Amino acid sequence: MKYLSSFVIVMAAFFSFAIFSSNTGENSGDQQVSKGISNQKEQSNDLPQIIKAVDLSNRSFSFAGEALPMESFDVRERLDRELMRNSYWHSNTILNVKKAGRYFPIIEAILAENNIPDDFKYLAVAESDLSNAVSPAGAKGFWQFMKGTAGDYKLQVNSEVDERYHLEKATRAACKFLQKQYDRFGSWALVAAAYNMGAYRLDKEMKQQRAKNYFELNLNQETSRYLFRIVAIKEILSNPRDFGFYVDDTDTYKAIPDFKTVDVSGPVANWGDFAVKHGTNYRMLKVYNPWLISSSLTNKSGKKYQIRIPN
After folding, report:
1. Residue 83: is it exposed, middle or buried by C-beta count within 10 angstroms (0-12/13-18/19+)?
2. Closest CA to 67 of 209, 195, 187
3. Is the dihedral of CA 56, 62, 67, 73 positive or negative?
4. pLDDT, tens digit, for every residue of 235-274?
5. In angstroms, rounded to a whole number, what is the distance separating the alpha carbons of residues 279 and 177?
6. How far is it, in rounded angstroms, from Cα 251 to Cα 95?
7. Which of 226, 166, 170, 188 is nearest to 65 (CA)?
8. Same domain, yes or no, for 122 and 146?
9. Burial annotation 254-269 (CB, 10 A radius, 16+ → b, else e)
10. For residue 91, what are the CA distances in angstroms to 11, 95, 129?
11. Which tops the pLDDT comparison, 98 or 12?
12. Nearest CA among 137, 125, 48 for reference residue 86
């Protein structure tokens, strides 16, 4: 009995120690997990963005001097959609903020020369993200001209030259188109819609729907969103920090460096040889003259071209 009592006492002490150690371990593990969660919470507070809705209350919006009827819930919600999409399309929007520093001065000057409202520079952003883009339908350049329309506005398009990629010439052609549509519709908002869907189709829809302005029209999804997308782009690019885009002046793309102009009125067998002859290289020749789309130029007509060569 004496031995049995001693054995019971020893075993009781052993199990007590085991239970105490187990609880201590569990508490320690819980503390570690709790500490880890706390650290994660602290780290999450350091995220560089806050996801929130765009405040449209007590604000007015306009395009080319024409006010959007913000008293309409339909107008507010359509604009809200485009503001949200472009506010949180981070990489694309911040690149447009950067590219605007290079290309807006060129576009603005040509719009002003042709008495076209400055807001139409944002149409070029909506069309191409300020790049020589190519659409699935074959529209090309900053202003996304189709080949036939380009020819109507005196832009040369062939297998060697595509002036839809010539920013200055294409912008002047766009100005002519925009003015023509304003003379027809008398509203810059409708001009933007006509740019997207075509003047003939827009005119037909207005007559059929008995609509007096863009906001009364029930159009295809792309054109229905088009003006609101332009206005959203205008708001964000005009006030990028209000939408969380912090781009310093040093971060924006500057004007393409100085260049000289060389007149060419005959054939060029190889633009690579031409580039080397004029102290540059093929890549830079194409950067400065993206409208030269071939490696050579036949030029049987003897047309004079102005080729930009970096200094």
Report:
1. buried
2. 187
3. negative
4. 999 999 988 889 898 899 999 999 999 999 999 999 999 9
5. 38
6. 10
7. 188
8. yes
9. eeeeeeeeeeeeeebe
10. 68, 6, 12
11. 98
12. 125
The DSSP code sequence of 206-218 is HHHHT-SSGGG--
The larger pLDDT score, comparing residue 206 to residue 51, is at 206
Q: What pLDDT is attached to residue 66?
A: 97
Mean pLDDT along residues 77-83: 95
- 3-class DSSP state for residue 261? strand
Inter-CA distances, 201 with 150, 219, 222, 296, Å: 19, 10, 14, 40
If asked whether residues 119 and 235 sit together in one domain, one would say yes
What amino acid is encoded at 285 in this protein?
Answer: L
Band of pLDDT at residue 193, cut at 50, 70 and 90: very high
List the one residue out of 65, 63, 97, 79 whose CA is nearest residue 241. 97
Whichever domain contains 157, its CATH number is 1.10.530.10
Strands (E), 51-199: 62-63, 66-67
Same domain? 182 vs 306: no
Number of H helices, E strands in the chain: 11, 4
* Structural domain includes residue 218: yes
**Residue for token digits 């359509």?**
78
Q: Could you write out the DSSP letters of every residue in 224-246?
A: HHHHHHHHHHHHHHHSGGGGT--
Q: At residue 302, does pLDDT exceed 50?
A: yes
Cα(102)–Cα(243) distance, rounded to whole angstroms?
21
One domain, residues 276 and 209: no
Structure tokens at 233: 């782009």
Supply 65's token pair.
């001097």
Tokens of 129: 């993200």
